[in-house]
Amino acid sequence: MTDVELHLPPDVRYVGLARLVVMVAARQAGMADERLEDLKIAVSEATTNAINAHRRTAKPAPVVLAFGPTGSGQFAVTIADTGPGFEPPPLEAHSSRDWSLENGLGVTLIRGLADDVEFRREAGMVVKMRFSVDLTGDGAVGD
Amino acid sequence: MTDVELHLPPDVRYVGLARLVVMVAARQAGMADERLEDLKIAVSEATTNAINAHRRTAKPAPVVLAFGPTGSGQFAVTIADTGPGFEPPPLEAHSSRDWSLENGLGVTLIRGLADDVEFRREAGMVVKMRFSVDLTGDGAVGD
Amino acid sequence: MELTLNHRKEGDRTVLEVGGEVDVYTAPKLREKLVELVGEGHYQIVVDMTKVEFLDSTGLGVLVGGLKRVRSHDGSLSLVCNQERILKIFRITGLTKVFPIHDSLDEALQDSE
Amino acid sequence: MELTLNHRKEGDRTVLEVGGEVDVYTAPKLREKLVELVGEGHYQIVVDMTKVEFLDSTGLGVLVGGLKRVRSHDGSLSLVCNQERILKIFRITGLTKVFPIHDSLDEALQDSE
Ligand SMILES: Nc1ncnc2c1ncn2[C@@H]1O[C@H](COP(=O)(O)OP(=O)(O)O)[C@@H](O)[C@H]1O
Ligand SMILES: Nc1ncnc2c1ncn2[C@@H]1O[C@H](COP(=O)(O)OP(=O)(O)O)[C@@H](O)[C@H]1O
Fold this sequence. Notes:
The complex is a heterotetramer, with 2 copies of chain A and 2 copies of chain C.
Chain A: E1 4-8, H1 15-28, H2 33-56, E2 63-69, E3 74-80, H3 105-113, E4 116-121, E5 125-132
Antiparallel strand pairs in A: 1-2, 2-3, 3-5, 4-5
Helix pairs in contact in A: 1-2, 2-3
Chain C: E1 3-10, E2 13-22, H1 27-39, E3 44-55, H2 57-71, E4 76-80, H3 84-92, E5 101-102, H4 105-110
Parallel strand pairs in C: 2-3, 3-4, 4-5
Antiparallel strand pairs in C: 1-2
The structure holds adenosine-5'-diphosphate (2 copies).
One adenosine-5'-diphosphate binds at residues 45, 49-50, 53, 81, 83-86, 103-107, 125 of chain B.
């Protein structure tokens, strides 16, 4: 099955729309309610980052979400931007993290909620996340 | 403001997603609830027709919805397909219509619900509809 | 996002209660149900649309198809609908002249047409 | 789709009730509210998140910012949250060790920390 795509102008007002659309598509693909909550948060994080990357560099181009069920009981979401890209930080133990930092929580959440995630540099950043449709494959905390 | 775009595989299961996404974007743009109902139906009709056009010709390409507020108090939705296209029928009076036809109601509804609509042939068919965001410009019945 | 269909006899009428969304994806179920009912000899049908949340031209087409079916058995198909947003699409398409449309199920059942 | 913010005094505490969605679009309002409260001398804050429907890292960051602010006045910021889906993101980010999190407002108000 081909993916649905959502192209969003780089404006943070659209992050809620991204969550909703992906959630409805995943529900239609049979995802359990509890798992939908994980998906919603991870999509929110990656979309926020992509939109912010365009805003930081004043890029008017849209960010593109592509999503749909995979053949193998998962639901995949790819979020692509054409911003400057970044090197995802190494997986670190929580205990080593400075609690008073107000940033840097998004990538931790994506890693903690998705079954797996790939960060790839292309024209900008491409973040591909996969989520089990049922609850059995619930992603382990990424530390 | 640039438009949001939704690219849908030509499968009728996605018509509900199209309605929902456009409705949520229009609500965010300030559209009144009653007017949202008109928008939902017109989007459903044009998306159904676009997807059916691809299915009739076994085209796997997506149909593309682009939507957003215009500068002038309206919300515009463009639905583009790459199917065979068609000549929209002339505006006819209801009284002349054979009630027993089960088809041909979609274009009548689009014309009746939108403030205005353009049917344009390009790579396939492009249907552009505009809706007043408040209720004052409620489209007249198109006959 | 789903279509619900439930029918029951009320005197000589058959009431088909439709709920949820009727669009190109779900309408085939409604069509099948109407074909099935007529096939089983239900020719006086009242379609109760009170709980319909969405209906577009595909749904209208299926109702027209149902009406033709019952008429070919000298039957009737009337509608219960009190939602302005749905009545509106019957008006725009001129179908208010084709279907008897009632405000309530009681009214539909009392109608002797 | 909206954020609601209401605060009131309960003894020496200030309860800030947050409802709706806290994300990058709405979080600035929450940040402003916390800055305003601390500016007005509210240093013992209980953020009641019972009615929060969505919270992501932007919201977490704002709460961390609020905590730093009250601590600089020797104050406290505790949370009321009984929703598993929200507790989960505090756990994943290790913030359960940073915020006192209570099941109910009563419990939060009784806590003498
Ligand atoms: N798509 C992206 N493009 C460019 N930089 C990114 C992207 N995603 C994340 N980053 C960088 O990684 C940092 C950490 O991201 P994240 O963990 O989501 O936390 P936050 O966004 O709160 O800082 C961001 O501040 C940003 O500099
Ligand atoms: N996007 C399109 N591409 C090709 N043909 C179309 C398109 N939209 C409508 N049509 C043609 O116009 C006819 C009438 O459309 P419509 O009024 O929506 O009623 P229906 O789809 O129920 O027949 C369709 O049957 C189809 O042949």
